[in-house]
Amino acid sequence: MSKGTNDLVDILVAKLKRRQLVGSSAVAQATLKLLIVVISKNNWSKANDLLNLVRSVGQRLIEANPTELAIGNIVRRVLHVIREEFRDAEASSKSDDNSEFQSVPLTTSSSMYNLLSETGSDDKEFTHASSNLRSDIIQEVRDIRIELDTIYENIKNQATNHIHSNEIIMTIGRSRTVEEFLKMASSKRKFHVLVAETAPSYLGQQMALELSKAGIEATMIPDSAVFAVMSRVNKVILGTHAVLANGGLVAISGTHMMAAAAKHHSIPVVVCTGLYKLSPLYPHDEDSFNVVMNPDAVLGFEEGDLMEKVIVTNPYYDYVSPEFVNLFITNQGGHPPSYLYRLIVENYDPNDHTFDPLA
Amino acid sequence: MPPKEKVESTEQVLQAVILADSFDERFQPITLETARCLLPLCNVPLISYTFEFLAVAGVQEVFVFCCSHSDKVKAFVKKYEKSSNMKINTIVSQELMSVGDAMRELDAKQLIDTDFILVTGDVVSNMKLDQVLEEHRARRQADKSAIMTMVLKKASPQHRSRSVGDGSLFVLDQGSKECLHYQPVKAFKSTREDRRMTMNMEIFDKHPEIQLRNDLIDCQVDICSVEVPALFTENFDYQDIRADFVHGILTSDLLGKTIHFHEVSDVYAARVRSTQMYDAVSKDIISRWTFPMVPDSNLQVGDCYEYRRGLVYKEKSVVLSRTCVVEEKVVIGANTQIAERAVLSNCVIGKNCIIGANVKIDNAYIWDNVVIKDNCVVQHSIIANDAVLEQGVTINKGCLISFKVTVGANTTVPAYSRLTALAEGGEDDLDAELISDPAVVGATGRGRSFTEAEGSDDEDDDEDPKNKQVNMLAFDMSELKLAAKEQEDSASDFESEASDLEEDQISPEEELDREVAATLDRAFQDGHDVDIAVLELNTLRMATFSNFKEMRKRVIPGVLKHIDPVAKLGSGKTAKEILSRWGPLVGKMIHDEEDQIDGAHVLHRACATLYRDVVQAQKVFAPALRYFYDEDILEEDAILEWYHSEKSQQGTDIEKKLREVAAPMIQYLEQSDSEESDGEDDEEDEDSE
């Protein structure tokens, strides 16, 4: 790797470690920006070289902050794009000399065909380099960037399909996706939003304020009242930090409580999320993707006598298991949790679930 | 390729100065072999936390001042610089003895050309300095004399993260964010100066509202302007930044500089100043108060800690046996092995350690490559790199076990021991042979008990040794034994204190007594006019916020005192002469009937108390009453009222006898009263006739 790009990686790693850069969207943008530089500024000729380069960068970024799953997702998307481009290049060069009728393995894992074929045979093909391959790959990665930029647009355009007049919607925390979604719906429909205040970060307060500024009838309720008012609610709309492969959510703490209350009252739970938040990783234990914050917000540091006697944990996220979620609204449309596996195979290559260097 | 990051080009490079040396000996004997700022705190060198704190604040250039073990610090800084995007310069000076010396050096080298952040190499903090910097710059723009901004953190006085004995008292103006006065507070205030605080009264003139605060952690994070090093050069006796510099600047009228403060509340900031603070800050880090500076952020390159429930942080390469118990608040470094049935709680264990079976570790800090064999017990101690505890060793609380010490099998190390494997005088003479002390480290052990070199602490000779003790690891206030002599000392201290109080603190009443007596004496001696004396007394009355009643109580006896009952006529001291001269003075103190009654009572009591002998008292009282009646100072109604009041009928024998003296006069008054009314009746009768 050239020194310049290495420095850039170092800077991003430091920012991630110091938590100067947090939040799925910001992290995803920064990762993609960095990867474009890595791909364009470094020398590579074989597919495996490039894949290993991107993987090594990805590995460093993920280790810097393993709870920001969006980093890994973006790196995997880029790896997927690189594989596709190589495959296309391979196929076109073959189709040049062979007949057009030869079947081309388009995507590796989405078909049963590859399940039984030897793995690694693909990688051999990737040794071939094409002259305009670099620009093709960069173009494809730029497309991902455009996708990131238009995510809110794509999601909010579906708002009127899901929100009807005079409905009562409940939400928690402050998610930009949900905020835009509701604002879009309010341009055509009149409805009421209940926002849980989301202690101890109180992001719900900001959310309620923003919604009411946009002319939406918003009421802030304490977190403890969520269950009590749930019976009157028509729909729960949630934002999330990440979506795991099983359809579970890593979302701001309090979400699990709200989703469970909704399930009790049989209220539909809808999750608005960009596809870049969808991770191919499974939660092997509930704490695995959580961040435990400074306990200051729960128990003040000033209370010196108390803080020695208790352990205060202040988890920032909740894990919400998939049975609580009824629908995911992504930039590609609405999907039930059971369909997520399909989105994962379409967007990520199964070889990229871990970033160990390729042979 | 240069980093694409946008550097705020309009602003100058933000600089910081780290004082890596602590200039004290609280961590000895461990600091004999390495620098204080390189001690591992939760398995990360202390100075890394400071670097990290500065990096988050956006500092681009750092100067590290170091003195002892400078080669080690330099090597570390060089390694660290590679992984950070700051420019770090190390400045080594063997002559540095204090903060003041470092600042003078800084001034001499002219390294700083803008406002800079001054911190010590043991600060652990997650605060963001941008707001403080902004405030400081804005203040500097408005007023060039604002030379420094101190960052203070609020915490209750008994907070564990407050260094015992390094307390400080701040006098602050919340309006202008100005620090007006500073005083260090010791844990044991053995001398009278320690217990007192002297403040310039002018502070009250300039600031309508001030606060005296003892609930602030002073983590010594300062934003200094370029003048600060220069001021240190000018005042070459300044050593400490707080006790000398801040105190000096604030008490000096000549300099006209001001020092401001910034109070933070929801962030963490503390300094590892002593072993006791090492303990407290370690616990704060493990309890995540310093977030995001926690072990699982892996701020050090190559670390890979994971967070587990119960505040357990573990590297991936740790080998835990099946039956070992890792309780809460534990950090375990890479490649460490924990054997069967070991119990760990509230502790930090470094890299490559081997912990044997049945070992119990509580509250201890075990650094890298330590071997603890089976059945050992370690409580509330620090065990440095490469130490070995053979089987069955017990380490009691408060021990510091330095590098490469070996404690032989089945030895019990008493509480608060300090062991080193460094030969006596080994600092200078590397060839000196270590003479192990089997009494301390056991037969097969290696090491000796460490005692502080004599006279090493000459500056602090006058300091109470107890103040050193309180900073020790695991120090328990209740264990402090006061020797009999000390108790006597402190008792006599209190006595002298009490007598001081009598002398110095006079109640306002006593003050008035004294003043009135002095005024009257002066008036009698110098023969003032009554009017002048009255004027003086009235001024006095207003100055002391008292009333006429209080004045009468003092003036009447004051006048009567000058009467000599046995003096001959013409000597100027008989009752008549004195009263005719000074009587009007009393008159000025009496205005209405109530005053008159009160005046009669005062006169009565005064005569009774001034003169022991009844005869003498009568000789004064009778003419005085007569005089006051004649002069209409006391009118007849008032005198009658006094005479018939219950208060006058009670009292001492003398008082009773004096009242009897008044009886003929009362009789006369009553008669004349009735005569008058009779006369009137007669007249009326005559008229009617």
From TrEMBL, chain A:
It holds the Pfam family IF-2B. Keywords: Cytoplasm, Initiation factor, Protein biosynthesis. One of its GO terms (cellular component) is cytosol. Its main location: cytoplasm. SUPFAM superfamilies: NagB/RpiA/CoA transferase-like (SSF100950). GO terms for molecular function: guanyl-nucleotide exchange factor activity; translation initiation factor activity. It is found in: Cytoplasm, Cytosol. Belongs to the eIF-2B alpha/beta/delta subunits family. Component of the translation initiation factor 2B (eIF2B) complex which is a heterodecamer of two sets of five different subunits: alpha, beta, gamma, delta and epsilon. Subunits alpha, beta and delta comprise a regulatory subcomplex and subunits epsilon and gamma comprise a catalytic subcomplex. Within the complex, the hexameric regulatory complex resides at the center, with the two heterodimeric catalytic subcomplexes bound on opposite sides. This is Translation initiation factor eIF2B subunit beta. The gene is EIF2B2.
TrEMBL record, chain B:
Residues 454-464, 489-511, 672-689 have a biased composition (Acidic residues). It comes from the Eukaryota. It is found in: Cytoplasm, Cytosol. SMART domains: eIF5C. Residues 443-466, 486-511, 667-689 are annotated as: Disordered. Residues 502-679 form the W2 domain. One of its GO terms (cellular component) is cytosol. The keyword Protein biosynthesis applies. InterPro entries: ARM-type_fold, eIF-2B_epsilon_N, eIF2B_epsilon, LbH_EIF2B3/5, NTP_transferase_dom, Nucleotide-diphossugar_trans, Trimer_LpxA-like_sf, W2_domain. The keyword Cytoplasm applies. Keywords: Cytoplasm, Initiation factor, Protein biosynthesis. GO terms for molecular function: guanyl-nucleotide exchange factor activity; translation initiation factor activity; translation initiation factor binding. Its main location: cytoplasm. Belongs to the eIF-2B gamma/epsilon subunits family. Component of the translation initiation factor 2B (eIF2B) complex which is a heterodecamer of two sets of five different subunits: alpha, beta, gamma, delta and epsilon. Subunits alpha, beta and delta comprise a regulatory subcomplex and subunits epsilon and gamma comprise a catalytic subcomplex. Within the complex, the hexameric regulatory complex resides at the center, with the two heterodimeric catalytic subcomplexes bound on opposite sides. This is Translation initiation factor eIF2B subunit epsilon. The lineage of its organism: Eukaryota, Fungi, Fungi incertae sedis, Mucoromycota, Mortierellomycotina.
